[in-house]
TrEMBL record:
GO terms for molecular function: exodeoxyribonuclease VII activity. This is Exodeoxyribonuclease 7 small subunit. Its EC number is 3.1.11.6. It holds the Pfam family Exonuc_VII_S. It catalyses: Exonucleolytic cleavage in either 5'- to 3'- or 3'- to 5'-direction to yield nucleoside 5'-phosphates. Heterooligomer composed of large and small subunits. Residues 1-15 have a biased composition (Polar residues). Keywords: Coiled coil, Cytoplasm, Exonuclease, Hydrolase, Nuclease. Residues 65-92 form a coiled coil.
Amino acid sequence: MTENATSTDKNTPASSLADKERKLIAQMPYEEARDKLIQAVQALETGGLNLDQSMRQWEIGEALAKRAQGLLNDVRAKLDQAQAEQAANEATAGTQSNLD
């Protein structure tokens, strides 16, 4: 995420994501979620973060990975459905059953 994506709730630990951040991630297109996930991983790999910052990057990364994987799963389901429909149409091509 960016520096301006911080939690404003004083009662939550520094490493937890705000509802606003979760909603932003939940609305991201795949490419944006993937790119921000790469940034979060790079921030962790680079080091130099304190424990709270590391936990925050990890939580951001987890949320982004979940979003990206969910979008990929949706696309896979659509492709599987399209392939099944195509196979069913091919199986009945040239027969009376495809006229129903």
